[in-house]
Design a protein that fits this description.
Layout: E1 2-6, E2 27-31, E3 37-40, E4 43-47, E5 53-57
Antiparallel strand pairs: 1-4, 2-3, 2-5
Length: about 70
Amino acid sequence: MTASILSNNRAVAPFGQAGGEAGKPGRNTVERVDGRVEELTHIGSVQMGIGDVFVIETPGGGGFGKPGS
């Protein structure tokens, strides 16, 4: 089968506001049944095989306000 994704904040982390720190960027990968891991960009399609796993790590939100205040 073909798996496709359209996502944001994979190359650029979500920004913080009012001095808050940026969140962590997301990541899209395919874990192949033979152990290989293929990284996908924020927009992509990939052929999947039996036993392959499509992994979507969503980005963390940016912080609000200075840390520790």
